[in-house]
Amino acid sequence: MYISMVLDMNFALSVLSICIASIGFALFMKLYLKYTSKFETYKSIPEGKMGLPWIGETIDFYKAQKNNKIFEEFVHPRIAKHGKIFKTKLMGSPTIVVNGAEANKFFMSNEFKLVISSWPSSSVQLMGKDSIMEKQGEAHRFLRGLITSTLNISGQEILVPKICDTVQCHLEKYWKGQENIRIYPLAKKLTFTIVFECLLGLEVHNGILCVFKKVLEGVFAPPINVPGSKFYRAKSARKELNRLIVSAVREKKRELEEEEKESGTLFSRLVLAMINGEITEDEVVDNVILLVFGAHDTTSFVIAMMFHMLGRYPDCYSRLLQEHNQIRSKKKPGERLSYEDTKKMSYTWQVARESMRMFPPIFGSFRKAVVDIEYEGFTIPQGWKVLWTTYGTHLNEEYFEDPETFNPSRFDKPVQSYSFIPFGGGPRLCAGYQLARLNILTLVHYVVTQYEWSLIYPDENVVMDPLPFPSQGMPIRISPKV
Ligand code: HEM
After folding, report:
1. Which residue puts its alpha carbon closest to atom 43 of ligand 1?
2. Are strands 468-470 and 385-389 parallel, antiparallel or unpaired?
3. CA of 151 to the centre of ligand 1 (A)
4. Is there a contact between 389 and 75 (Cβ–Cβ < 8 Å)?
């Protein structure tokens, strides 16, 4: 009796489960068909798979990103199957992934006309809606003008000696007397100080780097604002940062109004524009934060990867060292580098470019179509995202012969335009590119002329979370040159 009751119950439960599963499946199919038929009117959407409703192929993308294999595991297999332009769905958005110099040129140079930049919600909330990356048209042009005017040739002539002092101070504080150091975290400290002190002209207070780090950690985290989440911690740090920067803005405003003299630093220029009513206080704050974000992990990763490759390619290192010894030999003891000296570091910059080709700090960037776009016989519907990727050209032998080989000399000759794009291109080309260049060249100069060094882990992995970084922080053995 008891057994038959249990069997009856089991049977009833099985029938119920089958019913629930069937209803679930029917609902799922209905949603899926509704979702796929929505775009049937567009006959020429690029090929590709949209994956599951809402999630799309996000899990595959994140998995590839975690392994630092976005190209090998996500982009390349889809290029092989569907061609250089394919569709997918990422983080809830239908997305067209575009690869190749021609496509890069088309989408990057049509910024504001056909596409606008489109950052994840967590980045916008943490960087602020008033940062340059969220601006279009005239507002974008004005902010960009302020930033790039600090980095024109006369701006760079002023910056180089300041960067030299900062680098020497950094080496004195963190390298001197050490046997082992980790290049990547130290390069982050240095980059932060260079942006804050040399570019912006702000003093670095104790603890501010820590607050910045917490904000940066949440920039690509899911925007889940619950206590304990990365995003929640980043939002709290952002509030703290706001307080600190707002008080610096108001102090600078008082100074500028009382003294009526402008120091020429980017921070003064931003505050002066605020006094003149051209931008708001929020715009000053958001752009200070954005500049640190734009510079910090990117420049430090390039520095780390340059040392990684130089440690593995002694011939390249000898040639680079020769370049710096020559510059050094023309200087008096203690004399700083000049902007002209940095122009002589052409091979070093080729090493940096080759490192960025193989290990781009930014894998690509999202845009949003503001109208239906016709490109190469395809239609990209209005509202869809477009993702351009660095890997799509950097690792393609159509643009770079033998792309897996580290060969800085490939940059002896100019490369096809829009094929080398670590700094992006078009109206949104990196606004701090010259600062990154000076930061990298100056640090390399002082390190290679003052230190013997060798890699501790020549096979150290690069991981991504979500930006790439060396898994061990790139430790090196160092000893001062005699
Ligand atoms: C090696 C170092 C760097 C790399 C690889 C890099 C890369 C990039 C890329 C790819 C973009 C374009 C993003 C897009 O198209 O959506 C960009 C934009 C930008 N970067 Fe950099 N960046 C670097 C260093 C810096 C530095 C040092 C600063 C400033 C101090 C900076 C400030 C900016 C700003 C303000 C933008 C936005 C430009 C705009 O929207 O008009 N970057 N960067």
Report:
1. 430
2. unpaired
3. 13
4. yes
Q: Tell me the per-residue pLDDT of 239-251, one tens digit each, with 9 for 90 and over.
A: 999 999 999 999 9
Confirm or deny that 430 is annotated as ligand binding: yes
Ligand 1 atom closest to Cα of residue 119: 16
Q: Is the peptide bond before 53 cis (omega within 30 degrees of 0)?
A: no
Residue nearest to atom 6 of ligand 1 (CA): 423
Q: How many domains does the chain have?
A: 1
What single-letter amino acid sits at 75?
V
Mean pLDDT of the chain: 90
Of ligand 1's listed atoms, the one at least distance from the Cα of 388 is: 15
H or E stretch at 90: strand 85-90
Amino acid at 299: T
Ligand 1: nearest atom to the Cα of 143: 41
Pocket test for ligand 1, best of 146, 200, 299, 423 (most atoms within 8 A of CB): 423
Q: Which residues line ligand 1 (CB under 6 A)?
A: 117, 132-133, 144, 147, 195, 199, 290-291, 294-295, 298-299, 302, 361-362, 365, 422-424, 428, 430-432, 435-436
Give the CATH number for residue 236: 1.10.630.10
| Least confident interval from 51-65, 408-422, 423-437 | 51-65
Which domain does 437 fall in, by range?
Answer: 130-307+432-482
**Is 343 contained in some domain?**
no
Any domain includes 316: no
State yes or no: pLDDT of 474 exceeds 90: yes
How far, in Å, from the CA of 362 to the mean position of ligand 1?
A: 9
ipTM above 0.90 for this complex:
yes
Q: Which atom of ligand 1 is nearest to the CA of 292?
A: 30
Alpha carbon separation from 456 to 178, 182, 205, 308, 380 (Å, rounded)? 14, 10, 33, 10, 48
- Structural tokens at position 147: 């930033």
Which pLDDT belongs to residue 42? Answer: 63
Is 323 part of a structural domain of the chain?
A: no
Q: What is the mean pLDDT of residues 425-453?
A: 97
320 Cα: distance to centroid of ligand 1 (angstroms): 26
Q: Which pLDDT score, from 0 to 100, does residue 218 have?
A: 86
Q: Which residues face 387 on adjacent strands?
A: 97, 366
- 43 or 365, higher pLDDT: 365
**Across 228-234, average pLDDT:** 91
| Cβ atoms of 301 and 361 closer than 8 Å | yes
In a domain, 255, yes or no: yes
**The predicted structure's pLDDT at residue 10:** 52
The residue whose C-alpha atom lies closest to atom 18 belonging to ligand 1 is 430
Element (H, E) at 96: strand 93-98
